[in-house]
Design brief:
Layout (H helix, E strand, L loop, with lengths): L4 E2 L2 E2 H7 L14 E5 L5 E4 L1 H4 L7 E5 L1 H16 L2 H12 L8 E5 L11 E7 L17 E7 L2 E7 L10 H4 L1 H9 L3 E10 L9 E8 L1 H4 L26 H14 L5 E8 L8 H10 L3 E3 L3 H9 L3 E11 L13 H10 L1 H25 L1
Parallel strand pairs: 6-9, 6-10, 10-14, 11-12, 12-13
Antiparallel strand pairs: 1-2, 3-4, 3-5, 7-8, 8-9, 10-13, 11-14
Bound molecules: 1-O-phosphono-alpha-D-ribofuranose.
Length: 369
């Protein structure tokens, strides 16, 4: 966690070292002295202890209320508080009577997935209070409520990426909004580079799992104070992509007769916006990555944290070059969007059939109750 410093003093560290929010057992308040050691390291002592403290360190008075304020600022700016997210959810709930069960995120060039939705009510991101705006070509920037295969759904035509300048928590904040709107399932889609040599441009990869490389570097959408109203501090990720929905997708793909163009694999998200070097792609392949993009992973982590059931697929929009003499063209976003558009009908059909099948399951389950 960064951003909690005054004059180089780590406020969070000071707070943690100095006891409860209401003062210590001896009735001392939690205002305390933080010491900035000459070597740049920081240590803290309580106000009372410090009277006897006679070393060379520079002393800085740290106010408990100020710490709380700073924490709130960071939570609101980067993580969005539960209350703020609820306000955004209420904005929709007050304006539409549709109560979606499934949330869909349309990837680059895949806006048309939402064309299958009927009885739509659309909200431009720019009109939604406290909502970010899409800045990437191929992402319309609209939230669409309606019905798909008879199921109430909500679709995001446009997502937020880290490279746009949004922190990860803000990129995936809409997932929490959709949770509070009432969805139970998240269907995420993306455009991705095919790293598995068997993948062709235009193929689909059902996401079986992901590798959270940004998480390896300590960057997570769940970073910061945890609000248990969303989920636990340490959520498991072993069933991140629901195994029943993966099985269902296999069946649907067979029914569609497209099994030769569809794979199951591992996705990873890099920060972007640059595409990868050959050396990076070689490393990712060794790690077991099949498709690479710049989204989805943080959305799925956020979705699993708040107990949504997740299904995701990648449209392979380009082949990644893993040697310097490769004849593959350099990746470029125009091509990514173009391939998305050229494969919109197959991606749309997969989505519709999955939702039709899932709707039948849900009906059956409800019938049995
Ligand atoms: O993941 P989506 O949003 O589909 O878009 C993918 O396509 C863009 C790069 O061409 C990046 O934003 C990458 O993440």
């Amino acid at each position: 966690m960064t951003g909690f410093t005054i004059n180089g003093t780590d406020l969070l560290k000071s707070k943690a070292l100095n006891g409860s929010a209401n003062g210590d057992a001896n009735g001392r308040s939690n205002n305390y002295i933080a010491e900035e050691c000459p070597n740049g390291a920081t240590s803290s002592t309580s106000n009372a202890n410090n009277a006897n403290n006679n070393n060379n360190s520079q002393q800085i008075y740290v106010d408990e209320a100020e710490v709380e304020n700073r924490m709130k600022m960071v939570i609101n700016e980067e993580n969005y508080s539960y209350e703020l997210i609820k306000e955004i959810a209420d904005y929709f709930l007050e304006r539409t009577s549709i109560r979606p069960v499934i949330g869909i995120i349309c990837g680059s060039g895949l806006n048309s997935l939402a064309d299958h939705i009927t009885d739509i009510q659309a909200f431009d991101y720019k009109d939604i209070p406290n909502f970010p705006v899409s800045t990437v070509e191929g992402h319309v920037g609209r939230m669409i409520f309606g019905y798909l295969e008879g199921m109430p759904v909500v679709a995001m035509q446009g997502r937020f990426h880290y490279y746009e300048g949004y922190p990860l928590a803000k990129c995936s904040m809409p997932v929490r909004v959709l949770k509070l709107v009432g969805i139970k399932y998240l269907f995420a889609t993306n455009a991705a580079g095919g790293l598995n040599p068997k993948y062709k441009v235009g193929d689909i990869m059902i996401v079986r799992d992901h590798i959270n490389i940004m998480g390896f570097a300590g960057n997570s959408p769940l970073q910061g104070p945890n609000d248990p109203r969303f989920g636990p501090r340490f959520p498991p990720m072993t069933n991140a992509y629901d195994r029943h929905l993966v099985r269902k997708a296999r069946k649907v793909v067979r029914e569609m007769g497209i099994e030769n163009d569809v794979h199951e694999g591992v996705y990873t998200c890099l920060g972007g916006p640059n595409y990868e070097t050959v050396a990076e792609l070689k490393m990712l392949r060794i790690m077991g990555v099949d498709a690479v993009g710049m989204s989805t992973v943080h959305e799925v982590i956020t979705a699993r944290h708040c107990d949504l059931t997740v299904f995701a697929f990648s449209l392979i929009t380009n082949k990644c070059a893993t040697d310097y003499d490769s004849s593959e063209e350099d990746a470029n976003h125009e091509e990514v969007v173009m391939v998305g558009k050229s494969r919109q009908s197959i991606c749309g059909e997969l989505m519709c059939r999955m939702i039709r099948d899932l709707a039948q399951d849900i009906q059956q389950k409800n019938g049995k109750k």
